[in-house]
Amino acid sequence: MDPGRWLVIPRPRPDAAVRLYCLPFAGGAASAYRTWPELLGEDMEVAAVQLPGREMRLREPPFDRVGPLVTALADVLEGEADRPFAVFGHSMGALIGFELTRELRRRGRPLPVALVASGRNAPHLPARDPLMHPLPDDEFIERLRRFEGTPEAVLQHEELMRLLIPLLRADFAVNEAYTHEPEAPLDLPLLVMGGDGDEEVSHAGLEAWSEYTTGPHSLRVFPGGHFFLNPHAGEVTRLVRETMRSALRLPV
Question: Which of 46, 85, 167, 203 has the fewest CB atoms within 10 Å around its CB?
Answer without folding.
Answer: 203
